[in-house]
Amino acid sequence: MTTFDERLIEQTTGALEVFGIYLGDRLGLYEPLRDETGVTPDALAERCGIHPRYAREWLEQQAVAGVVEVHDAAADADARRYRLPKQHAAVLLDREHPAHLAPLARMIAGIGGVLGEVAAAYRSGGGVAYARYGADFRHGQGGINRPAFTTSLVESWIPALGGAADKLARGGRVADLGCGQGWSAIAVANAFPHAHVLGVDVDPASIEDARAQARAAGAAVRFECADAAALASEGPFDLVMLLEVLHDLARPVEVLASVRRALPHDGAVLVADEKVAPAFAAPGDALERLMYGWSIVHCLPAQMAEQPSAAIGTVIREDTLRAIAAQAGFGAVRVLDVDGGFFRLYELRP
């Protein structure tokens, strides 16, 4: 049994190694390391535009941490050649691979930049607005969701909703609320080229990112910076998606009520939210620990920045979601029998 002090040292080591991944991702250091022959510190420095001394130290740290391999550890420090194992490339470089987790490092960095503000919010009872977490968190959150939103969403999640895929294929209308950087809306537009797709988010920077991504992908999506509670005026929609969004809403009942008004009698809502345990228990499993970790430093403070707030935090359990849906006027809530990874998938019907 690992004692608590040993556990804390291990976690500190892990946090520092996450910062190493952040530097590698942010500075583009991993891509050259795909080279099977390996890369020296000087070569990495030249290719990526960093100082050779930093290149050497970072490569040594990555090798010691087991992230990269070194061909000859006994060679002179500047002559050693380093490479990225193929199995690590999916995690660090392949942005649509299900194992791609490098964006977590950018999320952690974004949180680190505002921890002082989070501490102040704990004392005042206020919050920390989403925009304050900055570009690192925004890109990290968009990147971590991208694999599921560009593949599973259109391949299995939407098809699991009775009739929704057929409607979109015939030119139906879909709204993606809290669309972030737009990966989900773009995937839907690409998979259902006849559908009319609207992406909505309250964060202006996210909407600008989404518009740029859509242009690059040649996707016909309209992105608008707007309050999701005003969706009813844009309806009707055959499908409305709230993907890892509902728990973050300050007024979830009001938003879902607007969504309900924007649906025809046979419309559907797809909700993807955290796959947490049915009830609170302590100590919790790894997923529960992860979700509470996000909650105390990001989700709850961001929600508290807007008042009045439901202040759900990250850990939205199934009974809470069902209660919110009922208050908003939905008659049926079904948990989809589909693998959502970290997400539990719900179908809401009028």
| Number of strand elements | 9
The level-1 CATH class of the largest domain: Alpha Beta
Say what oligomer this is: single chain
Could you name the ranges where pLDDT drops below 50 across 5 or more consecutive residues?
Answer: none
Main beta-sheet annotation = 7 strands, mixed
Structural class: alpha/beta
Please trace the helix and strand order, writing H or E for each element: HHHEEHHHHHHEHEHEEHEHHEE
| Spatial strand order of the main sheet | 5-4-3-6-7-9-8
How far from one another are the termini?
Answer: 51 Å
Structure description:
The protein has 350 residues and is of the alpha/beta class. It has two domains: 4-93, Arc Repressor Mutant, subunit A; 108-349, Vaccinia Virus protein VP39 (Rossmann fold). It has 14 helices and nine strands. A seven-stranded mixed β-sheet has the order 5-4-3-6-7-9-8, with helices on both faces. Strands 1-2 form a two-stranded antiparallel sheet. The longest helix has 23 residues, at 4-26. The mean pLDDT is 96.
